[in-house]
Design brief:
The structure is a homodimer of 96-residue chains.
Chain A lengths: L7 H8 L6 E3 L2 E7 L3 H18 L4 E5 L2 E6 L9 H14 L2
Antiparallel strand pairs in A: 1-2, 2-4, 3-4
């Protein structure tokens, strides 16, 4: 898995394969909304397990049924393939 | 459980019985730090179960091993006894 910071053009290209993600303050950002807190935190628990297995963790905030996720790769100083890989997994988990 | 907004004096008085909490932007705030993401998210999972049982939920954000918690009671437009009750439970769970 590459950890090289992607260019703006590479990021724009990869964003087309995701849904609901944009670049906010240099990070991949997605806002998600669920029916209840149980649903929101259930989603977070699924993402937490996947993130730990990838050894790549989101920055995120939760307010009741809403979760905001920001992804970037600290070591690379920007957005990398690793962030897009985690974003794709998050989309899979959010779609359930 | 009272849901009446507490006065500044009542809040200051109750803050003395907690550790690490302050009022930030009108909410009870505490920053917590753990050894790892697993520890941080394990803490969040414990708090989530307690919060759901209380039907009172935190606003919180997590970045790797750090968790920032904000508590307020939306219906009351401020900080209530319910927030201090949840803060006390959070302190118990954080101390484990």
């Amino acid at each position: 898995m590459a950890h090289t910071k992607l260019s703006d053009a590479e990021i724009a290209n990869r964003l087309e394969s995701l849904r609901g993600w944009s670049v906010v303050q240099g990070k991949l950002h997605r806002d998600l909304s669920f029916d209840t807190f149980v649903d929101a935190f259930g989603f977070m628990a699924r993402v937490a397990l996947v993130a730990e297995a990838m050894n790549h963790h989101p920055e995120w905030q939760n307010v009741y049924n809403r979760v905001a996720v920001d992804l970037s790769t600290h070591d690379a100083g920007g957005i990398t393939e690793l962030d897009f890989a985690l974003a794709a997994r998050i989309d899979e988990l959010a779609a359930r």
